[in-house]
Amino acid sequence: MGQTSQSMCRALLCTTALMCMHATVFAMTPDAANQTGYQREFKFLDADANGKLSAKEISKDGLFNGGGFGKADTNHNQSLDADEFSTYKSKVQQKQAKQAASDSTITTKIKSKYLIEKNFRSFRVSVETKEGVVVLSGFVENESTRKRAEQIAYEVSGVRAVKNALVVKP
Prior knowledge:
The protein has six helices and three strands; from the N terminus they run αααααββαβ. Helix 1 (3-28) runs antiparallel to helix 5 (82-116). A three-stranded mixed sheet has the order 1-2-3. The chain is 54% helix and 13% strand. The protein is rod-shaped and about 65 Å long.
């Protein structure tokens, strides 16, 4: 791949990454004219309409599973009011959005490095990242390329582990 092609590929990947991160931030931004999303969810879950959510009522929202109810119940009264509900839900969703942006950045950096790697057909390798764990899949020409792909992935900041499922194509 020529120098111009490499520069164009890098620019394209960087632009794509920035667009993904912008879309994530935009999706997190509440609509100033209508900030009742959490209120509507709260009312929908409040089956007995008492202004509080019990553990049974909140179990319909998967975000509160695995100890979420206890963490959200800051006054420890075994129920959630609208503020506890929205505060916890907002915090968890923001954390998820940041993780997704981080994972997207890791994937983009790895793919960029593959593009500039000599004798590496990067378009035959799929890279997926979830919570810092990278999964490589696809086909490579030989075992040394398979190992090099893994090594490149480990070199990217934020990578916690790499699962190398690349197959050497005979």
